[in-house]
Structure formats: C-alpha cells, structure tokens
C-alpha cells in the first residue's frame, strides 16, 4: 500500500534508521501519545501497539528506513495544540434515538451521517466483558443500539491501524477518537491520498487515557471489578463507576496520577481542536452532550439532525469548556516542569 503514496522524507535527528529516530525523539522521551498513527502506516507492519507501549522489537533489522512513521507522528517536533479551537457553533444536545455516555450525540452524529450517505462506514471503539477495547466497523444505524459499542472506555484502542484497512474497503468513512488520534488522522490525510476517504472526524473531550491492564488493576485495588460495571465516567474531578447491581463508586481523578501515561502528561488538547466536531459532557446539563461544530461538513450533519428532529437542544456553557481547556494547559505544561 505505501509504495503507491509518495511522501517527502523528513530530516533525521540522529544517525539511525527512522524508527530509531522516532524511538529516541518521541518514545524514549515520554512524548508518545499511543495514537498508533505510526503503527497504521508502517509498510512492514513491524510497529506494535495494543495494551502496551508502542514498539518495533526488530527495528534495527526490519525497519526499511522509509520515514513514514516520523512523517505522520503528531509528537515529532511537538508543539502542543490547546484551547477551544475554531468553531461555527457550540450547543448542548441529547439524542432522541440513542442512549450513550451523556446525550449520545457521537452516536447520533454517526447514525445521521450514515443516513445522509455522507459516509458508508464508521470506526467506533467497543469493549468486551472486561472493558478491553476493540475496534468495531459500523455499517448500519442498527449496530449503534449496542451499548457495548457506545459510551466511554478510558483505555487505548487501535483505531488508526484499523483505519488503514478501512480506507481500502470503503469510499467514505467517519472516525471517532481522542484528540491525539484526531491529530494522527489529520497527519495521515495530509500525507497519504487514500486517507482523504475519511470524511468526518469526531473528536472526544479528553484529559487523559490509560492502558487497560493498569486501569483494571488500579480499580481492583479500589474494590471495583470492571466486569461488574455498566458505565464509567469522569465528572467534576471524580472518576465514577456505575455497577450492574445499581451501586456507584467514585473517587478523585487525581488518584490516577501513578498510572497516567507520560504522553498524556504533555498533551494540552482537551477539545480535539483538529476534529470536524467535538463532543463531551463538560458545559452541558446532565443527560446532554456539548457539541462543538467546527467545519461545514459537521454543520451539514447537525442541520440534518435538526431537520429530522432526532435530538433535543439546549445552550452549552462555553465558559465551562474554556475552563477545562485552560486547566489541561495548567496541569500538563510543555516542556514539562522539572
């Protein structure tokens, strides 16, 4: 696949193969966000992800020194994105068709884009019984009624490696992801023509993400087995787990400090500023999602939702969103304070 797409080879920082440069300048320096863009584009399939740090175990031998991994890495020559970003409108909304994390607007936007014919598939993050993430290709609105597909998981997912295969099978795609994944998609689109098939990028409000095994073990120490959970959430500085028996456990998010990956600690992009539309709970009343419409394609989808009366609408508290954007800059300074 990669031989069809010509790229301008970036300049090396050290006298090693390009993955050696990525390892030295991004991974070993604790900047890697685990967005998996490099995994998606590696022509030899040597870069690994999953529930562990990004690696290329045999890079000295197997890396063909093409430079693609460095070209698409959002953390190469890193300059943090931050703030609320450019937008057309900000509103609060609640889907009338779906149940999701809050207002289910990620689900509603995706379903509407499918109905409109804007996309023929979307990549979502589902989960298993242990809340391990898995990438699911959505081809129909009916699939979006599965509650294991909707909602937030707070663990890394290999969405962009799945996107590499999806752009060869579909003409028009939507992708849902965290801010670092959104930036990865934009890098792919700027450098490889096939990724122009991504027509809609939905960004999620995000402060941090976690490796599943660390999150699972951490919660066990708190007396919470994720196998008994029906929903996880972060609100007002609290991590909240709702259980199958109706119980609820919560504790301060700051207690997660020991398992926050280093790449998250240098990220300042709370609102996914490079997305077509950003969605999260901050700035909306309970049961609603805050929706930041950034591009004309996203506006077309929201206009369709209004036309079909698929959602209830309310005003969003823009200042509350800006406050969290500024808070993330404060807690994740770059360069990091010594």
Describe this structure in words.
By secondary structure, this protein is an alpha/beta fold. 29% of the residues lie in helices and 19% in strands. The chain is built from ten helices and eleven strands. The chain has helices at residues 18-27, 37-41, 59-62, 68-72, 105-116, 159-169, 179-191, 212-221, 296-308, 318-331, and strands at residues 89-95, 121-127, 133-138, 173-177, 198-204, 229-235, 238-243, 248-252, 277-280, 289-293, 311-314. The strands form two sheets. It has an eight-stranded mixed β-sheet, sandwiched between helices. Strands 6-7-8 form a three-stranded antiparallel β-sheet, with no helix packed on it. Helix 5 packs across helix 9 (296-308). Mean pLDDT is 93; it is low at 1-5.
List the helices and strands and how they pair.
Blueprint: H1 18-27, H2 37-41, H3 59-62, H4 68-72, E1 89-95, H5 105-116, E2 121-127, E3 133-138, H6 159-169, E4 173-177, H7 179-191, E5 198-204, H8 212-221, E6 229-235, E7 238-243, E8 248-252, E9 277-280, E10 289-293, H9 296-308, E11 311-314, H10 318-331
Parallel strand pairs: 2-4, 4-5, 5-9
Antiparallel strand pairs: 1-10, 1-11, 2-3, 6-7, 7-8, 9-10
Helix pairs in contact: 5-9
């Amino acid at each position: 696949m990669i031989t069809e797409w010509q790229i301008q080879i970036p300049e090396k920082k050290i006298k090693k193969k390009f993955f050696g440069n990525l390892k030295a300048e991004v991974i070993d320096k604790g900047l890697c966000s685990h967005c998996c863009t490099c995994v998606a584009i590696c022509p030899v399939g040597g870069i690994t992800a999953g529930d562990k740090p990004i690696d290329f175990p045999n890079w000295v031998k197997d890396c063909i020194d093409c430079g693609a991994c460095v070209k698409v890495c959002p953390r190469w020559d890193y300059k943090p994105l931050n703030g609320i970003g450019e937008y057309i409108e900000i509103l609060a909304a609640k889907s009338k068709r779906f149940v999701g994390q809050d207002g289910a607007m990620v689900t509603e936007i995706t379903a509407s884009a499918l109905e409109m014919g804007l996309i023929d598939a979307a990549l979502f993050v589902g989960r298993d019984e242990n809340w391990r993430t898995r990438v699911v290709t959505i081809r129909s609105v009916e699939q979006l009624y599965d509650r294991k597909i909707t909602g937030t998981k707070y663990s890394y997912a290999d969405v962009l490696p799945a996107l590499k295969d999806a752009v060869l099978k579909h003409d028009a795609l939507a992708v849902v992801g965290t801010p670092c994944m959104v930036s990865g998609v934009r890098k792919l689109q700027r450098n490889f023509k096939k990724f122009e098939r991504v027509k809609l990028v939905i960004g999620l409000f995000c402060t941090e993400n976690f490796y599943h095994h660390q999150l699972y073990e951490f919660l066990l120490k708190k007396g919470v087995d994720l196998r008994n959970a029906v929903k996880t959430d972060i609100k007002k500085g609290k991590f909240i787990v709702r259980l199958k028996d109706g119980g609820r456990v919560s504790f301060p998010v700051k207690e997660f400090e020991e398992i926050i990956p280093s790449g998250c600690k240098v990220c300042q992009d709370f609102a996914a500023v490079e997305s077509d539309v950003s969605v999260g709970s901050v700035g909306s009343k309970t049961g609603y999602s805050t929706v930041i419409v950034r591009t004309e394609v996203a506006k077309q989808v929201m206009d369709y939702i209004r036309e079909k009366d698929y959602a209830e609408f309310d005003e969003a508290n823009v200042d509350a969103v800006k406050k969290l954007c500024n808070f993330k800059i404060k807690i994740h300074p770059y360069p990091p304070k010594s």
